[in-house]
Amino acid sequence: MNTDSQVRIVEVGPRDGLQNEKTLLPPDIKIALIDRLSSTGLKTIETTSFVSPRWVPQLADAAEVFHRIRKVPGVGYPVLVPNEQGYRIAREAGASEVSVFTAASEAFNRANINASIAESLQRFQPVLEEAKAEGVKVRGYVSTALGCPYQGEVPIADVVKVAKQLYEMGCYEVSVADTIGVGTPAKARAMLHAVAQEIPMHALAVHFHDTYGQALANILACLEEGVRVVDSAVSGTGGCPYAKGATGNVASEDVVYMLHGMGLTTGIDLDMLVATGAWLSAQLNKPSASRVTKARTTADT
Ligand code: HMG
Ligand code: MG
């Protein structure tokens, strides 16, 4: 049993959240969002993606956004890169932490990055080598860890295999992701348990989308299993452009509320996070997907 009471939230809203939002936000709003998040006590904020702008138009301003955000000492600002080209552009923009991403199912990977799983790992090899030489931290994602929009069921052994490869290639942390939000707690727990037989639990993170409303329950099950790093997005925005029907990540406000209620610490000021989530939903002109933000802002009016 993991008795550590500290949980690190990896805020992915500016990247995973915004990448699938139809309303194109100008760089100034994205910068204001990240700067606000930097004041909440978050320790890790995934800020943007250096992917092809043709594939993800919302994040075509990655370099400008990364340049202009306030970098608070002690806060990590990773960015997503799909290949060496993205890595180089990210480095030129000043990034010192990156995330690479592949999947446990072939069809999803093909739709998302136009590569097989093996090809994607080959693409990451030079990224990981350069990163090691340059002292850049690399995080790895395994998408479709609890189900694939094309293949359906994904064998746990496939998730374990890909996660292990990313870790062995040098990723300091591997985030196992329920990209389409279909997982349920016992399955999530079994998957994490199996991955943790190969990778130390302290190097694992969980990443849930909330399509079927299971994300908080899944996180609770994974906390009981021992994980202490959780990905989430303020206001529960977004989804994956290459996973039709998938909704946003679990809302950071809801995760933090649950964690604090359990006596776990995050270092995050929930009121500031709620204010940021309410502000973001106004920018996107849509209601927040966070139940906590809805409850608090309704109570205020
Ligand atoms: P491709 O078309 O196969 O690539 O795309 P290519 O190598 O043939 O290049 C085509 C063009 O893209 C070229 O330009 C390249 O220069 C350019 P052209 O000569 O045609 O003008 N290009 C780039 N431009 C900017 N930055 C780059 C870059 N690389 C190539 N890094 C590629 C392959 C990987 C580029 C493309 O498929 C892509 O960008 N995919 C990104 C998809 C994406 O961002 N998906 C969402 C993120 S993943 C996710 O959300 C899941 C996660 O949250 C976890 C979970 O929930 O599961 C992480
Ligand atoms: Mg995601």
TrEMBL record:
CDD domains found in the cross-reference section: DRE_TIM_HMGL
Superkingdom classification of source: Bacteria
Sorted UniProt keywords: Lyase, Metal-binding
Pfam families: HMGL-like
Pyruvate carboxyltransferase domain mapped to chain residues: 7-274
GO molecular function: lyase activity
InterPro entries from the UniProt entry: Aldolase_TIM (IPR013785), HMGL (IPR043594), PYR_CT (IPR000891)
Family according to the record: Belongs to the HMG-CoA lyase family.
Protein name: Hydroxymethylglutaryl-CoA lyase
Native species: Dyella flagellata
